[in-house]
Amino acid sequence: MAKHYGATVTATASPGKHEAVRVLGADHVLDSRSPDLVLQVLELTGGAGVDLVLESVGGAMFEVSLAAAKRVTGRVVVNGLPAGDAALTHWDLVYRHQIHVVGLNIGVLSQSAPKMFADVMGEMCALIAAGVLAPDRPLSTILATGRRPSRNWRHMPPRASSPCCPDGPQPRRRGGRQGNRVRLP
Fold first, then answer.
1. Which 3 state secondary structure label does DSSP give 24?
2. Model confidence pLDDT, tens digit, residues 34-64
3. Which residues are registered as beta bridge partners of 11?
4. CB 183 within 8 A of CB 174
5. Paired sense of beta strands 75-79 and 52-55, if any
6. Proportion of the chain above pLDDT 70, given as a percent
7. What values do phi and psi take at 17, rounded to 5?
8. Rounded distance, CA 128 to CA 20, Å?
9. What are the backbone angles phi and psi of residue 28, rounded to the nearest 5°?
């Protein structure tokens, strides 16, 4: 969605996942394990930092996320259940990281701000209907072994319909602003 609305997307991943992240649309892909990750982000942004960090890793990466966000107007949105504890003091917010930190839980959002949630879901559904976004099949992992049951998409069951796509997902249309998108096999 960020690419559709004109954002420059910088993603982090381990080196083995860089190509997959590029295929999904990232403009820049950095090694998530690099010790100078913050410096790389600052170099890409002319020293300013990024406007928005989606933080779902936790641990030491939380500190990297805080340092990579643009001062005063930058946001770090913590979602999922990141690993480890995060220590962020008042002193840190005033003197080290003058940024906005937000915790995001979709269930709480849908209950506490139902109109906002409905607006976001409606916008996402409209982008799916227009062929800009396409929902992918979820990946599953066998917990006992940590292995994926099948790497061949043809063996996976068809995607079910949803409120956005009552007839099931439709193929992405080519052309328009995002006509060069490709899908992972």
1. coil
2. 999 999 999 999 999 999 999 999 888 999 9
3. 29
4. no
5. parallel
6. 73
7. -105, 0
8. 21
9. -135, 140
Structural domains in the chain, sorted by start:
10-155 (3.40.50.720)
Confidence of residue 98 (pLDDT cuts 50, 70, 90): very high
pLDDT at 103 over 80: yes
- Closest by CA to 86, choosing from 64, 69, 105, 68, is 64
Six-digit token string for 95: 């003197």
Helices (H), 113-185: 114-129
**82 and 101 Cβ atoms separated by less than 8 Å:** no
pLDDT, mean over the chain: 81
For residue 94, CA distances in Å to 66, 71, 114 come to: 13, 11, 32
Query: For residue range 129-149, what is the model confidence (pLDDT) as tens digits?
Result: 998 888 776 666 556 665 555
Across 161-171, average pLDDT = 52
Count Cβ atoms within 10 A of the Cβ of residue 65 and give its class: 0-12 exposed, 13-18 middle, 19 or more buried.
buried
d(CA 165, CA 97): 41
Q: pTM for this one?
A: 0.72
> What's the rounded Cα separation, in Å, for the pair 10 and 26?
6
The type of residue at 9 is: V
